[in-house]
Amino acid sequence: xxxxxxxxxxxxxxxxxxxxxxxxxxxxxxxxxxxxxxxxxxxxxxxxxxxxxxxxxxxxxxxxxxxxxxxxxxxxxxxxxxxxxxxxxxxxxxxxxxxxxxxxxxxx
Amino acid sequence: xxxxxxxxxxxxxxxxxxxxxxxxxxxxxxxxxxxxxxxxxxxxxxxxxxxxxxxxxxxxxxxxxxxxxxxxxxxxxxxxxxxxxxxxxxxxxxxxxxxxxxxxxxxxxxxxxxxxxxxx
Lengths: 108, 120
Hints:
Chain A is 0% helix and 49% strand.
């Protein structure tokens, strides 16, 4: 089974900061990676799919990159609405999804 | 727009059963593989089960294999999860989400989820 490891688990940042979250796969997943944002009490929201494709309606300050086993989610200038937990998800494996453990972005 | 609405959760005793439903609208349901994902209180996301667009193939996380059964009715745009032999560790909010079979894009939003509580 493919394992997904996110780092860091928690990140403290200020409004305006550039923020980078890393997700590593235990084996190559090509570009079959998605990123989600989740706020307390809410369902996850899709931000990025296929590693770097921005979902419609998502602000352009969010970007994704990577392929194979190493991926990053970057927020170019952190906004107050961005304080949330972020999850990566692999969907390379047929009939199986795997999520990372999550990265909580907190106010510094 | 894409809408997924989960229902069927509730309080059930250990060893009991529940059937969850997910009603889909705003997209061609039969074009999508569908999954159930759960989130235990204060924890991360855990994939539970997956079904292909025509129901030909299904898969389950080891934690639910042999106890849960996923199914779908494309005519009713609905996804189901039959949960038997429930355990305390199955307590979670259950969400449904999809992946388009051809383009491998995801449903952009999930439903609000349905809470399953397993407790005596």
